[in-house]
Specification:
CATH topology of the largest domain: FAD/NAD(P)-binding domain
Distance between the termini: 84 Å
Mean pLDDT: 91
CATH class of the largest domain: Alpha Beta
Shape: globular
Number of helices: 15
Low-confidence stretches: 473-485
CATH superfamily of the largest domain: FAD/NAD(P)-binding domain
Number of strands: 21
CATH architecture of the largest domain: 3-Layer(bba) Sandwich
Radius of gyration: 26 Å
Length: 485
């Protein structure tokens, strides 16, 4: 093994949190190393949002192809060449890896990158080893990301993960998805459009339990209308068995054992911290009861010189929040300023069909601390969805009755994810409905759906004027012009 390389800051993990932590530390003047088991970019670039979005876009194109006849375009029947689609996925992932993973910036800032180093683990509180690499640092930032949570049941090894779903070399005839959170819903939606017969099973009372109840209800209705076999509160799984070249799930719904079979079965029951091999106990780093690395508001662990950021902490496990965490952890690691981040308004959504998204508070949470006005605009009454033939969905706006501020927005429908970004900006800026109503939104756009919800909320609040009060009339004094010598 080579002699230890010395750095001020060593970042473990090359996903969004790790990349931005390394960039920030280097820009603050620290000698910085970035150590990653695989390639830079992490799951987000190779096994998450990027490849998933390619498949979701293919599903969207198939759906839109069915609309061509309504617009007078006749191209005949369409067919899916899944092998060519997977080639497109590989091309996009490679393109992103070479252009969008910040590798050039890391080099420009002097970050020493050790990629494909294997699993890193502490051998003492200031030294990690990854394969033949040995690194010693004054500060560490742990950004190891997360991994699929496994079911502790007989035959659970027959159950694939979302990674296995995106890695299939052919579209399965039938697909069983266990767990209807964000990942499970997306797997079900994409493969349903690609041609699989999809069965979606959720043990909770409704799919998408972290979403507003109206969102869950309309998404379940839309999935069923699209042909997905949705089961909520289905009971308790007993085991998985190999059956007829596929997988059988045995479960009990309270009336005795039942079973369902599919060619492929995927488990999407949650996401857990990927701490395997880190040897955290050697470094004095504690974890939570659920296995995430415990951090304070400054993202410092129980070991004062070690910080953690991103999915590995179990906070909001999304790319934008991981980037923010990485920036904050690096700033505190290098400068020791004790900075914290006020919980931001986080727009969250998924590229299902239809899309769904949220920003701010749910109705249930809003009612705990606010007297609220609820304004809901169906997509079916807005011009752009009618033009596009995409009238499924709604925009639900929550407004504080006392101060008229927008505090929550929940959307189902076409471009829902983009629409929620607009709502998030308004909520973060603490805009009132009067202020938002003054913005002349372009027409016809999907943002008009939000605009109509704003006007509905204003109507409920008894607001009928949005203009600035008349300015006081004052006599304008013209400047005196004199000749200069």
């Amino acid at each position: 093994m080579e002699q230890a390389r010395e750095f001020d800051v060593a970042v473990i993990g090359g996903g969004p949190a790790g990349v931005f932590a390394a960039l920030r530390a280097a820009r603050l003047g620290a000698r910085t190393a970035l150590i990653t088991r695989d390639s830079v970019g992490g799951m987000a670039a190779t096994d998450g949002p990027v490849p998933v979005r390619v498949l979701a876009h293919a599903a969207r194109l198939r759906r839109e192809a069915r609309q061509l006849g309504a617009f007078g375009i006749d191209v005949g029947a369409t067919s899916l060449d899944y092998g060519r689609l997977l080639g497109r996925v590989r091309d996009v992932v490679e393109d992103v890896a070479t252009t969008s993973t910040m590798l050039p910036q890391l080099g420009e800032e002097g970050v020493v990158v050790f990629d494909h180093s294997g699993t890193a683990g502490f051998v003492d509180s200031h030294t990690i080893v990854a394969g033949e690499l040995r690194v010693r640092a004054e500060k560490f930032i742990l950004c190891g990301g997360g991994t699929n949570r496994l079911l502790p049941l007989p035959g659970a090894d027959l159950l694939g993960s979302h990674h296995d779903a995106w890695s299939l070399t052919a579209v399965p005839e039938s697909l069983l998805v266990v767990g209807a959170g964000a990942t499970g819903a997306q797997v079900a939606s994409v493969f349903n459009e690609l041609g699989s017969r999809v069965m979606l099973y959720e043990a909770a009372p409704r799919i998408l339990m972290t979403e507003d109840e109206d969102v869950s209800r309309v998404m379940a209705e839309s999935f069923r209308a699209a042909g997905i076999d949705v089961h909520e509160s289905f009971g308790r799984i007993q085991e998985f068995q190999a059956a007829n070249g596929g997988v059988r799930m045995i479960f009990d719904n309270g009336n005795g054992p039942e079973s369902v079979e599919a060619e492929v079965a995927v488990g999407a029951i949650g996401w857990q911290a990927d701490t395997s091999g880190l040897n955290l106990q050697v470094a004095g780093v504690e974890t939570t009861p659920r296995g995430y690395i415990a951090v304070d508001a400054q993202l410092r662990t129980s070991s004062p010189h070690i910080y953690a950021a991103g999915d590995i902490t179990g906070r909001l496990m999304l790319v934008p929040q991981a980037v923010q965490d990485g920036f904050l952890a690096a700033t505190n690691a290098v400068q020791e300023r004790g900075l914290t981040l006020t919980p931001p308004v986080s727009p969250i959504g998924s590229f299902t069909d239809p899309e769904y998204a949220q920003a701010g508070l749910s109705e249930a949470k809003a009612r705990e601390h606010h007297d609220i006005v609820i304004a809901t605009t169906p997509f079916a009454v807005a011009s752009r969805p009618i033009i596009d033939g995409r009238t499924t969905g709604f925009c639900k706006l929550l407004v504080d009755r006392d101060n008229h501020r927008m505090i929550g927005c929940h959307v189902v429908g076409e471009r829902a994810v983009e629409l929620a970004q607009v709502a998030a900006v308004a909520i973060a800026a603490e805009m009132t409905v009067e202020q938002f109503a003054r913005i002349p939104l372009s027409f016809p756009t999907y943002t008009n759906v939000l605009g109509r919800a704003v006007l509905d909320a204003a109507r409920q609040l008894g607001i009928d004027e949005f203009w600035d009060p008349p300015a006081q009339h004052t006599r304008r004094v013209e400047p005196t012009v004199t000749d200069s010598e």
